[in-house]
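User: Hey, quick favor. My workstation is busy. Could you predict this chain's structure for me?
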Amino acid sequence: MDLNLFPTRISEYNNKELATQILPVVDEYLALADTMMSIDNHITTYINPELSHRLNVDMRMKPAFDWCIETALYELTKRGVDVRQLQLNPHFFVNEIRQGGYFHRHAHPNAIFSGVFYLDATSETSDIVFYDPRPYKTCRVLPMLNNDDQEFVSVSVETGKLLLWESWLEHEVVQNKSPRPRKTLVFNM
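Assistant: No problem, here it is.
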């Protein structure tokens, strides 16, 4: 399913079986991970280079890495990109956002394509919110028949959902109000 929201797309794929399969391995890494930028209840391997490297070479994660990369390349090809001319260096990290945790509005620098694979999430855990980057769209006074008049869109999450987008697209993770943590595998290419 494609969500045609802004001048780009956010694409959605699903693989709940794979998410369930790798969750125990991810839990091992999250038990060793650090708090993200002093944000209580946001745990990540992103800021620990040694742990991040271990995750990226862990063969138990290979099925998930391969599926994410293959799906991203398929999506880029669907969008008209000649992937044979790209030199991609995928980098993966894992996050856990516990009750009260969040992550501010941001984009992913030094990448062209990003994705998040939800490993343990329900409709009760925090959504991801994508923002329309067009600077003057709020000046529009014409009534629109489609969703072009939205400044942002909130996408609900669930175990097994993979979202893909161009890395420049700003997004945030709103505060998780659920007692259930939200666990993800995130990657940039």
